[in-house]
Amino acid sequence: MPDSKKYLHPEALRRIAPLELRARRIVDGFLSGMHRSPYFGQSVEFVQHREYTPGDDLRHIDWKVWGRQDRLYIKQYEEDTNLRCTLLVDASESMSYGRGELNKFDYAATIAASLSFLCLRQQDAVGLTIFDTKIRVKLPWRAGRKHLQSIFKSLEQQTTNEKTDLKAVFREVRESYPRRSLIVLITDFLGSDESILKGLAALRQAGHDCLVFHVLDDDEIHFPFNDPTRFEGLEGLDPLACNPRALREGYLEALQRFLDRVRRTCASYQIDYQLTPTSQAMDATLTSFLAARMAHMRKR
Amino acid sequence: MQFVFQPLTWGFLLVLVPLIAHLINLLRHRRTKWAAMDFLVESYRKHRRWVWMKQLLLLLSRMAIMALLVLLLAQWVTGARWLSIFGQTVTHHYILLDDSQSMGDSILGTSVYQSGLKSISSLLSSVADDQGSHQVTLIRYSRALSLDAIHNANEPIKNSTDKLDPSSPSSPSPKRGEGEKYGFGKSPNSKSIQPADTVADLLSRSIPTNPASLLEPLNLTSPVGLSLSPIAAIETISPLVRNASDEQAIVYLVSDFRERDWRQSQAIRSALEPLKAAKVELQLIDCAPVARENLSVVSLQPDQEILAAGVPVMMRVDIRNPGASAARNVNLTLKSFESIPGETQPRVDRFASGKETVLPTLVLDSIPAGETVSRRFQVIFSNAGSHVVQAQLPDDPLLEDNSYGSVLDVVADQQLLVIDGDVSRRGAFFLNATLNPGGMMRTGWRPTTESPSFLRDTSVEILNSYAAIVLLNTNNLDQRALSNLEGYVSQGGGLALFVGGNLAQSDIDRINRDWYRNGQGLLPTAIERVNELSPSLDGAASPDMLPTNHQIFGPLLGSSNSPFQFVRVFQYAKFATNKPKETEAGATLSRPVWQSILNLRDGSPLMIDHPFGKGRVIALGTALDPRWTTWPQDPTFVVGMLKTMGYLASFRTATSAELVGTPIEVAFSSREATPDSEVILPGIGKSALRQSIMMVAAPKVEPMLGLRIAVDPAGQNLEQTRALLSPGVTEVWTTALAGERLVKNFARNTPSQEGELKKISASDLLSGLRPVEAKYRTAESLSATVALAGLTNRQGLLLLLLVLFLLIEQFLAWSASYHLSVFKPANAGYRFASR
Predict the structure, then answer these.
(1) Looking at per-residue confidence, does A162 or B155 come out higher?
(2) What is the rounded distance in angstroms from the CA atom of residue B105 to the CA atom of residue B321?
(3) What is the dihedral of CA B135, B140, B145, B146, to 10 degrees?
(4) How confident is the model at residue B338 (pLDDT cuts 50, 70, 90)?
(5) Chain A interface includes B25 (CB < 8 A)
(6) In this structure, how many other beta carbons lie within 10 angstroms of the beta carbon of residue B247?
(7) Which of 63-102 (A) contact B at CB < 8 A?
(8) DSSP label at A290?
(9) Is A270:A255 a contact under the CB 8 Å cutoff?
(10) Is the pLDDT of residue A155 over 90?
(11) HEC per residue, B156-186
(12) For position B131, what pLDDT does the model report?
């Protein structure tokens, strides 16, 4: 594994405590490994030449330079900075679960920080909302390094508590961000299923493009418990003592049904959905985000 | 419930271990915070009943496994009938061991009986190594036979002897029990069946790891001198088999399977029918690999003549060759053992006590296969007493039938009562001179002459002291005299009746009325009249008297010239010849047919012989009177009278030889001897010393004392039982009040058929038993092919159940998701991530 990619994996990220540094490493490692540069803009302001590498789009080759020097270079331009990205991060108590390197909220915060860093690096405007039953932090769309520090600080200072009530949250978000933007929701969808989906539908109807990162811990996906266990519910649910192996099959079936329902709803509202286990490397997450950003840019 | 290893039943506490582990696991929950409770609760609500049910079944199956393990280790044994639904639980081996005399057939010092014991040992060893619970019951044929059955076994033969006698009165004294085997050919009645718990050598014994210890007492046993069938033993175990329906029973007949015993096996088949109904497996274990040549002494008897001191006795010995090839140059050793007055100590190291005399050896040039050869020899005893004669063949495979003993109770003189109705007593004088001539000539007879009134005034007891009675010129006897005579003859006495003298028609009518009594009296046939015999025209060429094939004159038949050629008969009393039907004899034998001893030239019987009760009556249709016949002046008269009297006296003589098992009864007066008696038993084996036991005679009717020596096959004293069931001579020594020792001998011999060693083929044996199915195998192959009937035993069932419960436990554990292999996180994770 090249060093640049090292920090895309949760086990490595866990050792990096400051969120800012963690986000920077992620974005740098992600971008340095990309062979082509589709995400550089199509504006007229030229930035630089770069030597062609296999995989680059042939449309960006500077043929004049080739005619003079018999060498292939591609032209890079600086993109426009008028994208508005809204990050919605779930900080309910269920997000505190995690037996791996990072719990779900840590993972969600890391995603949010990385996306913020990536957006602000391209001069996009980023807004942040952290919520549980209500909105606990709300940062408006801004661009600039100071705003980035505010985002990092907000994410680092949050702790998880309370239940999730996305219905009220989405109503407030819709009012807080009236202009169309790219909304990135990072949540585990636990504790509020139908209300989330309805809230997302409302955002879509308001003209926002939505991207959902469904963060789940590996334990929640695989349910790997063997010994008799007393499960004490987060978000105030009653405890249950059982033989987890006997219930595993039923649990996985129920989880599968839930995921299918979420996935179908997202698809029906043209919401990009990404199941994101906390053990997954960050590059897939960032790739999904950039693809959504590109789509959002094209629609504009 | 019973267990072989009772202490291991504490292991049943292990049944609680799964329960305790289950409870501990319920208390030992690890705690964890969990976010996705909705899915977990949904799964729990959906599956909790099944989960609870599976866990309960799993717990019960684990407890059952522990219980089954303990049952297996503790070796559960029980008689519960319901378990028979699943198969037999205990295998019971019923071993019936033939210990008849033919099992003594030996080769290189090892008898067939020992081979049988060895095969039983192999069988038990194999069974001991087998899985499952096994029990063994072992009964020898002889022990299964009741005391009465042994003692009464000769009775039917005794009757059949009576049947034979009338048709052949000249036949020698019958050999009691010959040709009969205890139990063969007839089923024992219910009273003769012995309970197994009293006669079994081993009764329902568990088989230890080393079964040799079980058989140690049996190694001291040997074949007995009896001819035995398995019927009594089968009848003995039948109740056990029928009452133990939860057992799998296997009956082994360990025998030598001789053709003489098994050719006609209907009785055995009938005895086996109940076992077949009880689905018992029958195995025939043949211990005798091949049939071998053997010779037997089947009889040693004195002629039916007078047994008196100083009088020579002719003995007849019969040698049988039951083999397949002729025996040549066989030396038959003969010995006599004469009791000597004043002899004080028995000789326990010899065949019999007394003065041993080796008689000239008889050499039999050839004994054809399957035939019996007879030889006669003479023996003489100078003293009165109980003497023994022994015939001994050279050693062959079966030793016990090579020796045969016969006891001759010789008296100093035989008393003869002569009743003469003629006042001159000329006939009596003439007869006395004939039977006791005096001087150097010794006949053994001591005649006494009395008048007919003596018969009236005497009693049967007094008459019994006479060996024979002769009636001369006695045509008129009152009823009391006739009654005494009939009582005397019916108790074994011999009566010679000379019909003649001054015989008027009224005398004939009286004789027919009193003596014939329409067939119920002493005369077997009526007298028709007095006939005159016309003189012969060709003189000596046609003698007046013609002997028939009877013991008295039979030996004279072979001569070319008739010994009676000079005898003239002038007149005679004609006997009616309308004989009773011979078949009537089969019913009561009280009036069997008579046989003529001497016929006249015109075919009329002159001298007839017929049985009356236990005795004999010989009637002559002539008187010792020159007006009737010249026979008294002829030399043949002397021979004829001596042989006739000897013949008549022989029916009171004790039988000289019996079969092994016949009880011995001795009676003597307390005024002559003390009740303390010393009994010398037959020797066990060829060279063993004979045992001596002390007995006390029991008081009978004053002043008589009685001593009874009976065989109890199930007796506790093994050595005494073996000795009493061995062939040989038993001596009863008593002490007279005067101090001298008295001895009475009894010979007991091996049944003649035990010497027939011809084998029956396995196919004939099995076909003879059908429809009873049996497996035949030789003793050699037994250990290799022991019936592994224990495969379907209780332990096997438990093992099967254990395996079944283990499989169920594994299935339940898998079903209840207790198997770690069910969890494959990588694959499961991929399923979600790929969507």
Answers:
(1) A162
(2) 15
(3) -70
(4) very high
(5) yes
(6) 23
(7) 93-97
(8) H
(9) no
(10) no
(11) HHHHHHHHHHHHCCCCCCCCCCCCCCECCCC
(12) 60
Alpha-carbon gap, residue B287 to B299, rounded angstroms: 28
Q: Give burial (CB, 10 Å; 0-12/13-18/19+) of B36.
A: buried
Which among A241, A255, A263 has CB closest to B29?
A241
Write down the pLDDT at residue B687. 62
Q: Which two tokens stand for residue A239?
A: 């405890």
Contacts of A252 in chain B (CB under 8 A): 828
B32–A231: do the CB atoms touch at under 8 Å?
Answer: yes
d(CA B273, CA B770): 10
Contact at CB, A188 and B47, closer than 8 angstroms: no
Q: Do B323 and B335 form a contact (C-beta atoms < 8 A)?
A: no
Sign for the pseudo-dihedral over CA of B360, B364, B370, B374: negative
Asked whether the predicted pLDDT for residue A296 surpasses 80, the reply is: no
Starting at the edge strand that comes first in sequence, how are the strands of the sheet with B692-696 ordered? Answer: B658-659, B741-749, B728-736, B673-680, B692-696
Which residue shows structure tokens 């280790």? B73
CB contacts of B821 in chain A (<8 Å) are: none
Sign of CA dihedral B9, B13, B15, B18: negative
Instruction: Check if A132 contacts B (Cβ < 8 Å).
Output: no
Picking from B799, B796, B801, the residue whose alpha carbon sits closest to that of residue B91 is B796
Indicate which of B22, B30, B37 best probes the interface with A, i.e. most A CBs within 10 Å of its own CB. Answer: B37
**Cross-chain residue pair A218–B829, CB shorter than 8 Å:** yes
CA distances from A100 to A1, A107, B82, B117 (A): 21, 10, 61, 79
Query: Chain A residue closest to B822 (CA)?
Result: A245
Per-residue pLDDT, B157: 35
- Please report, for residues A93, A169, B189, the alpha-carbon distance to residue A90 in angstroms, rounded to integers and kept in the order given: 9, 10, 104
> Chain B residue closest to A94 (CA)?
B35
DSSP letter string over B436-492?
Answer: ---TT---SEEEEEE-HHHHHHS-HHHHTTSSEEEEES-----HHHHHHHHHHHHTT
- Pull the structure tokens for residue A103: 């719990």
Q: What is the pLDDT of residue B732?
A: 92
Q: What is the pTM of this model?
A: 0.59
Distance from CA of A136 to the nearest CA of B (A): 21
A242 touches chain B (CB under 8 A): yes
Q: CB–CB of A218 and B32 under 8 A? A: no
Closest CB from B37, B832, B833 relative to A231? B37
| CB pair distance less than 8 Å for A259 and B46 | no
| A245/B contact by beta carbon, under 8 A | yes
pLDDT of A31 > 50? The answer is yes
Separation between Cα atoms, residue B584 and residue B587, nearest integer Å: 6
Radius of gyration of chain A (CA): 21
| Burial class of residue A209 in the structure, from the number of CB atoms within 10 Å of its CB (0-12 exposed, 13-18 middle, 19+ buried) | buried
- CA neighbor of B753 nearest in space, from B228, B12, B268, B38: B228
Name the A residues in 147-206 with CB < 8 Å from any B CB: 188, 190
Least confident of A6-15, A131-140, B396-405, B555-564: A6-15
Q: How high is the pLDDT of residue B321? A: 93
ipTM score assigned to the predicted complex: 0.77
Q: Considering chain B, what is the average pLDDT of its residues?
A: 81
Contact B230, B283 (CB under 8 A): no
Inter-chain CB proximity A248 and B818 less than 8 Å: no
User: Which residue of chain A has the CA closest to B47?
Assistant: A247
Neighbours of B75 (CB within 10 A): 18
Task: Give B497-553 pLDDT, tens digit per residue.
Answer: 998 777 888 888 888 888 888 888 888 888 888 888 888 777 656 888 888 888 888
Nearest to B26 among A94, A228, A263 (CB): A228
Q: Is A13 helix (H, G, I), strand (E, B) or coil?
A: helix
- Residues in B closer than 8 angstroms to A218, CB to CB, are 825, 829
